[in-house]
UniProtKB/TrEMBL annotation:
Top-rank lineage group of the source organism: Bacteria
PANTHER family linked: HD_PDEASE DOMAIN-CONTAINING PROTEIN, SUPERFAMILY HYDROLASE, PUTATIVE (AFU_ORTHOLOGUE AFUA_1G03035)-RELATED
Residue ranges annotated for the HD/PDEase domain, each copy included: 20-135
Protein name per the record: HD domain-containing protein
Source organism (scientific name): Pallidibacillus pasinlerensis
InterPro entries (alphabetical): HD/PDEase_dom (IPR003607), HD_domain (IPR006674)
A Pfam family that the UniProt record links to this protein: HD
Length: 214
């Protein structure tokens, strides 16, 4: 197991070395350790599946790749070449699919491994790191920091969410401030509280300074 994890680390460091939207190797590594910490506190789930799915959860994310299905096949071949247990390969890929924001918005999360990895991924999207990653992503995608004329969207399709006109500040209200209430584990909920409060304070100060207040 240690060897496949090491090989996976090497693969990801190469695949994500030029990533500048906040979905880089360091994000994957943070999610891995957050997931393992949640697993330790919850004392549930298969730690190997949790660690591998956490490390690989962005490998074929459609917002990062033009051909996500090709990337999924590529990852499946990598796993099959390194793991003798085909069931483990299926569980890893299934866990990644279950935490997808695109396919599982509002749907129940059926496995503890997916609950833990999803909580870890969403924790890295909020708080201080989450703020930094949000502005990195918005800048990479050419979004304005803020424009009061562009209103926060309350209802949208996935395509509108991904490609519609918005701002980085609006993204906090459209998604990030909602993540605290989507946490699946007791540990995730506890960890999300402080990060959520930090985002709220940041937004309060941002809008105050935006309006030229001392």
């Amino acid at each position: 197991m240690k060897q496949i994890i090491k090989s996976t680390e090497n693969l990801l460091k190469e695949q994500f070395k030029n990533e500048s939207t906040g979905h880089d190797w360091y994000h994957l590594n943070r999610v891995r350790y957050l997931a393992l910490e949640i697993h330790k506190n919850e004392n549930e789930g298969n730690p190997f599946i949790i660690e591998m799915a956490a490390l690989l959860h962005d490998y074929y994310d459609d917002k990062l790749w033009d051909s996500p299905l090709d990337k999924k096949k590529e990852l499946e071949l990598f796993l099959l070449n390194h793991l003798k247990d085909v069931d483990n390969v299926k569980q890893i890929l299934h866990t990644i699919d279950l935490i997808s924001y695109r396919w599982n918005r509002g749907k129940p999360v059926p496995t503890i491994e997916a609950k833990i990895v999803r909580d870890a991924d969403r924790l890295d999207a909020i708080g201080a790191i989450g703020i930094a990653r949000t502005f990195a992503y918005g800048g990479k995608k050419g979004q304005p920091i803020y424009d009061p004329e562009i209103k926060v969207r309350t209802e949208m399709t996935y395509e509108e969410y991904r490609h519609g006109k918005s701002t980085t500040i609006n993204h906090f209200y459209e998604k990030l401030l909602k993540l605290k209430d989507t946490m699946q584990t007791k540990t995730g909920k506890q960890m999300a509280e402080e990060r959520h409060q930090f985002m709220e304070e940041f937004l309060r100060r941002f809008l105050k300074e935006w309006n030229g207040e001392a």
